Amino acid sequence: MLMSRKEFLRTSGKAIAGIGLLGTGAVSFSQISGCQRTNGGAMLEYKIKDLNLVHTWTISRNSSDVKHNVFVKYTKDGVSGIGEAAPNIRYNETPESTINVIKKAKPIVEKADPWKFVDLGYEIQNLVEEQTAAKCAIDIAIMDWVTKKLGVPLYKYLGLDKSKAPITTFSIGIDKPEVMQQKIREAEKYPILKIKVGKENDPEIMAAVREVTDKPLRVDANEGWKSKEEALEKIKWLETHGVEFIEQPMPAEMLEETRWLRERINIPIIADEAVKSAHDIPKLATAYDGINIKLMKSGGIQEALRMIWMARSLGMKVMLGCMIESSVAIAAAAHLSPLVDYADLDGNLLIANDPFHAVDVVDGKLILPDRPGLGIEGEF
Ligand code: MG
Predict the structure, then answer these.
(1) Of 35-44, 45-54, 93-102, 231-240, which gets the smallest average pLDDT?
(2) What is the reported pLDDT for 34?
(3) Given its phi and psi angles, is residue 351 left (phi above 0), alpha (psi -120 to 50 degrees) or beta?
(4) How far is the CA of 8 from the centre of ligand 1 (A)?
(5) How far is the CA of 206 from the centre of ligand 1 (A)?
(6) The domain that contains 88 carries what CATH number?
């Protein structure tokens, strides 16, 4: 679970004192920011924003009402690119750890030639172990800057056909059956739903869902089933309920068990927690049918592209997913989405106070903006 606001302020007092604050007197969490220019023309700023969720968000691991995402702004030659990190405790990330990595990367990014973004990307990836959300924020901001400077939308720079952007699922978090039914009613305009399971009451949840909708469902267990027998029983039952595929049925490390499971079921198994970067993919190819790429896991756009090509070369399906993210990170993933089979890019739709806007969703379909860069509108 994310640490509370109080806890963060207590544990990160030192860091906060060192990075400068916007405003005086009582310090709001969302005001924590770093904006000291350290080198010539380029500047990398960072800021935490509190993202309030429309509904309490519960998956098999944890629950939350507010997310504290870290935003970065890279400015050079009169153009700014924006990036976002959604720290996830599953991967040992907190807003504090994310800011520490950004602070470490700041002098490197400000000194670098952004046009050599491939080299810069590797340098940032290798700067520290893990902490991919922080790396992702920087990579998104640089790619936004580069494509803004070129005056083209990111998808066009990549040579992609925006009409091939897929329909995104809309996710229904775990809740009391009657609340889930209400969420499903609110999600009327989305043609495909993603249902979170993996707790004790899965049958009750699925029965409640099917009582109110006959839409195609994609199901995510978030590693919630702890034995292959339990996973098999649950999936066999789900197969009779119009489920298209199952995401991460068992813990990431249970590769052998997942391979066993795959031989006994008829719907595809998609790896999520089991895959972060391209390096992880080859060993998964015999146990999973596809992978769920998230920019927060990969460390950004550049590694996500390498993952797409790697998965394709192994004949695997590709899905683009997200954490709870604003329109910044969602836009970055959406620009890659014409390359993939499935999209689950609804993180911004679950937020009540998204500070940005970029991608529209019409009848579930992702509509990519034609503005340069990621096409983000809104104040950093
Ligand atoms: Mg998942």
Answers:
(1) 35-44
(2) 57
(3) beta
(4) 26
(5) 17
(6) 3.30.390.10
Domain shared by 212 and 307, yes or no:
yes
Indicate whether 190 and 276 sit together in one domain: yes
Q: Is residue 374 part of a domain?
A: no
Q: How far is the CA of 52 from the centre of ligand 1 (A)?
A: 21
Domain check: are 75 and 138 in the same one? yes
Taking the centre of ligand 1 as the mean of its atom positions, its distance from the CA of residue 103, in whole angstroms, is: 29
Between CA 91 and CA 246 the distance in angstroms is 21
| Structural domain that includes position 185 | 156-367
CA angle at 332 for the pair 191 and 47, rounded to the nearest 5°: 115
- Residue 160 CA to ligand 1 centre (angstroms): 26
Bridge partner residues of 43 (DSSP): 75
CA of 24 to the centre of ligand 1 (A): 40
Total domain count, the chain: 2
Considering the domain architecture, whether residues 243 and 107 belong to the same structural domain is answered as no
Distance 146 CA to ligand 1 centre (A): 30
Asked if 105 and 168 sit in the same domain, the reply is no
Distance 252 CA to ligand 1 centre (A): 11
Examine the fold and report which residue of 151, 174, 190 is the final residue of a domain before the chain moves on: 151
CATH of the domain at 239: 3.20.20.120
Rounded Cα gap, residues 184 and 178, in angstroms:
10
Q: Rounded to whole angstroms, how far apart are CA atoms 17 and 208?
A: 50
CA of 62 to the centre of ligand 1 (A): 13
User: Does an H or E element contain 245, and which?
Assistant: strand 243-247
- Give distance in angstroms: CA of 273 to centre of ligand 1: 7
What integer pLDDT is reported at residue 37 of this predicted model?
53
Compute, in angstroms, the gap from residue 251 CA to the centroid of ligand 1: 11
Both 191 and 288 in a single domain?
Answer: yes
Domain termination site, one of 151, 180, 201: 151
Residue 375 confidence (pLDDT) above 90: yes
Alpha carbon of 248 to ligand 1 centroid (Å): 6
Q: What is the mean pLDDT of residues 173-188?
A: 91
**Same domain (yes/no): 295, 167:** yes
For residue 94, the CA-to-ligand 1 centroid distance in Å is 19
**pTM for the full predicted model:** 0.88
**DSSP secondary structure string for all residues of 11-69:** HTHHHHHHH-BSSSSSPPGGGBEE----SSS-EEEEEEEEEEEEEEEE-SS-EEEEEEE
- d(CA 198, ligand 1 centre) in Å: 11
